[in-house]
């Protein structure tokens, strides 16, 4: 078995992201013996790529790319598969003065046509001139990028002549890459990230958020086309000479415990996941296999990329406490691609801090009021939120009203941020850029939240908020409550509102149904409606749909807006309607004598 890269550089001083460009960071990291390790779905070493080898291969490829005669700043589309070829290509672009544009793999993206259209839109809007992808996706990429100067596999580019090519590395005041945010759908917007933005964010993450130290080792299954995977577990570790152990996202979905086994086997100290990743491990961990895993060295178990669910984190800590996992390792955070990645971190070594508020008062006036637990450990109409901590150094977070006034603590409003990590803008889209800027130049994140004693609490996306008769309803509360029903799985529910004629605003709950008996289905519909009524005191329309109907973003988050659009256009049909149509067709066929 090949040896993986080490966790410590014996003779190289540990430097936490004190570089002005990615090239400077890689030139330094290449002097040590840390790097990237890639593992199979069963946890076997597939590829080892030290930072030294990464630099060597990236420089060779950069010279080859220079022979294509591309102008400085030309965009390069790269399908971001979790294999060594992706970082090699990404950093080759840095050495050759080209701007990499990571593109998603066909996960959660629907049909062949939908994936090709998504690629086509991203490539066109980025103005890419060349593209690279794995052999198995070449037909998709060729179909999406017809007319580009070159479309090929890594082997095709490796066949280009190397001799005579020049290096033109980016300087500190120049671009770095274009990141499509996970929410990009029919009109993808590429976040234009500069060298200044990525290095400042990596510095703040490493020095403040994670307090990286010599000997730290990270593990990740997050997709490299998503900001948390790319910045958090590719670029930031390299800029601080930290080794990363990779498991492909699809491999994690099939065998979640492989992630934890890699942490155990190689002494991982840092890893992040959306809440659903911890939930998948809890499901697998209940069979006793947790006793075979040692998670005692895991000091930072980050949560990001979606709403933080305290109940799931508590279950994870209880399940894997026998493996040495400490709940104090949990580190909630908040960020978005428009701010490179990170905006705020909770304090280290304290676990999750919960803010319990009066749900009824918020529903009426948008103000959250802290509540205490009752004698039996609970309180009626209470909603628990997890604190995401304070803003990174040199960054700032505020809560603003719709009129752009700063709101006091415990008032829910728009989350706005500023700082050196904030994007220069959406690439070649000044109108979209202006749309997310406040009058005084802050970035409007599109999220809702409130402040409490200097800490940020995120309550959800502004566009997803359900407002019925002047009452504010958090859609995730409805979804989580329905998911708790016996015949429903996590990720099976989407809640949103629509305007329907004279009725006005109507709440709709789309529920993926796996039951085949019509009577059982109708019983589930009634249970779901009753659960919603109990949860938020409102009526709703429950629509039962087949599995795999709901749409998700490239990072695995539910896209309520896309599901809502499918509902409005008729793409989503209730299973009972389908049954009635089939029954009617059979009846008509029998009567006609066919």
List the helices and strands and how they pair.
Elements (H helix, E strand, L loop, with lengths): L21 H8 L5 E5 L5 E6 H16 L8 E5 L5 H12 L2 E5 L8 H15 L1 E5 L5 H7 L5 E3 L1 H5 L16 E6 L9 E5 H15 L7 E4 L6 H13 L3 E5 L1 H6 L2 H10 L3 E4 L1 H11 L14 E4 L6 H11 L9 E6 L6 E4 L8 E5 H7 L16 E5 L3 E2 L4 E5 L12 E6 L6 E2 L3 H6 L7 E10 L2 E7 L4 E3 L2 E3 L1 H9 L9 E8 L3 E9 L5 H19 L4 E5 L14 H10 L5 H18 L2
Helix pairs in contact: 2-3, 4-5, 7-8, 11-12, 15-16
Give a written overview of the molecule:
- The chain is of the alpha/beta class and 594 residues long.
- The chain has 3 domains: 1-38 and 46-211 and 221-242, Rossmann fold; 291-419 and 444-462, ANL, N-terminal domain (Rossmann fold, 3-Layer(aba) Sandwich); 465-582, GMP Synthetase, Chain A, domain 3, CATH 3.30.300.30.
- The chain has 18 helices and 27 strands.
- The strands form 8 sheets. A 5-stranded mixed sheet has the order 11-12-13-14-17.
- Helix 11 links the parallel strand 11 (270-273) and strand 12 (300-303).
- Helix 2 packs across helix 3 (85-96), helix 4 (112-126) crosses helix 5 and helix 15 packs across helix 16 (518-536).
- The longest helix has 19 residues, at 518-536.
- The chain is globular and about 70 Å long.
- It starts with 21 loop residues before the first helix and ends with a helix.
- Residues 375-379 and 578-594 have low confidence and may be disordered.
- Tally the beta strands: 27
**Which class of secondary structure composition applies to the elements?**
alpha/beta
Radius of gyration, in Å, reads 25 Å
CATH architecture of the largest domain: 3-Layer(aba) Sandwich
In the predicted model, the low-confidence regions spanning at least 5 consecutive residues are 375-379, 578-594
Q: If helices are DSSP runs of H or I spanning 4 or more residues, what is the number of helices?
A: 18
Name of the top-level CATH class of the largest domain: Alpha Beta
CATH topology of the largest domain: Rossmann fold
What name goes with the CATH superfamily of the largest domain? Answer: ANL, N-terminal domain
Helix content: 25-40%
């Amino acid at each position: 078995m090949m040896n993986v890269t080490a966790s410590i550089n014996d003779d190289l001083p540990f430097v936490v992201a004190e570089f002005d460009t990615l090239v400077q960071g890689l030139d330094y990291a290449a002097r040590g013996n840390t790097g990237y390790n890639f593992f199979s779905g069963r946890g076997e070493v597939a590829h080892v790529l030290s930072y030294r080898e990464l630099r060597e291969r990236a420089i060779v490829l950069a010279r080859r790319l220079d022979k294509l005669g591309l102008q400085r700043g030309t965009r390069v589309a790269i399908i971001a598969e979790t294999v060594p070829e992706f970082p090699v290509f990404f950093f080759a672009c840095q050495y050759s003065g080209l701007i990499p544009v990571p593109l998603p793999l066909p996960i959660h993206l629907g049909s062949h046509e939908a994936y090709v259209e998504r690629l086509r839109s991203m490539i066109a809007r980025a103005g890419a001139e060349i593209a690279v992808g794995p052999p198995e996706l070449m037909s998709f990429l060729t179909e999406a990028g017809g007319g580009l100067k070159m479309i090929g596999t890594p082997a095709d580019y490796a066949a280009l002549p190397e001799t005579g090519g020049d290096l033109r590395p980016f300087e500190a005041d120049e671009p770095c890459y274009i990141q499509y945010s996970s929410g990009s759908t029919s009109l993808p917007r590429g976040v234009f990230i500069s060298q200044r933005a990525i290095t400042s964010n990596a510095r703040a993450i490493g020095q403040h958020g994670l307090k990286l130290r010599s000997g730290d080792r990270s593990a990740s299954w997050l997709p490299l086309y998503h900001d948390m995977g790319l910045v958090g577990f590719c670029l930031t570790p390299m800029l601080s000479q930290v080794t990363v152990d990779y498991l492909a996202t699809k491999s994690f979905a099939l065998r979640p415990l492989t992630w934890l086994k890699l942490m155990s086997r190689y002494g991982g100290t840092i890893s992040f996941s959306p809440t659903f990743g911890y939930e998948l491990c809890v499901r697998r961990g209940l069979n006793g296999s947790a006793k075979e895993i040692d998670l005692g060295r895991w000091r930072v178990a980050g949560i990001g990329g979606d709403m933080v669910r305290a109940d799931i984190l508590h279950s994870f800590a209880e399940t894997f406490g026998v493996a040495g996992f400490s709940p104090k390792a949990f580190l909630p955070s908040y960020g978005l691609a428009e701010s490179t990645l990170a905006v705020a971190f909770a304090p280290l070594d304290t676990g999750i801090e919960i803010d319990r508020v009066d749900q009824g008062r918020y529903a009426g006036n948008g103000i959250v009021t802290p509540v205490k637990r009752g004698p039996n450990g609970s309180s009626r109409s209470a909603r628990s939120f997890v604190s995401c901590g304070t803003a990174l150094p040199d960054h700032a977070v505020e809560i603003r009203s719709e009129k752009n006034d700063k709101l006091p603590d415990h008032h829910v409003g728009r989350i706005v941020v500023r700082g050196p990590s904030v994007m220069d803008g959406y690439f070649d889209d000044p109108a979209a850029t202006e749309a997310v800027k406040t009058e005084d130049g802050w970035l409007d994140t599109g999220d809702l939240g409130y402040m409490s004693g200097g800490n940020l609490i995120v309550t959800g996306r502004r566009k997803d908020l359900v407002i019925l008769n002047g009452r504010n309803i958090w859609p995730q509360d409805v979804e989580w409550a329905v998911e708790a029903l016996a015949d429903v799985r996590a990720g099976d529910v989407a809640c949103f509102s629509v305007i329907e004629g004279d009725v006005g605003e109507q709440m709709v709950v789309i529920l993926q149904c796996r039951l085949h008996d019509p009577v059982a289905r109708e019983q589930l519909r009634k249970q779901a409606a009753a659960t919603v009524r109990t949860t938020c005191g409102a009526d709703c329309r429950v629509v039962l749909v087949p599995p795999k109907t709901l749409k998700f973003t490239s990072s695995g988050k539910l896209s309520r807006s896309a599901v809502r659009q499918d509902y409005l256009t008729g793409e989503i049909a209730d299973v009972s309607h389908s049954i009635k149509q089939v029954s009617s067709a059979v009846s008509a066929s029998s009567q006609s004598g066919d």
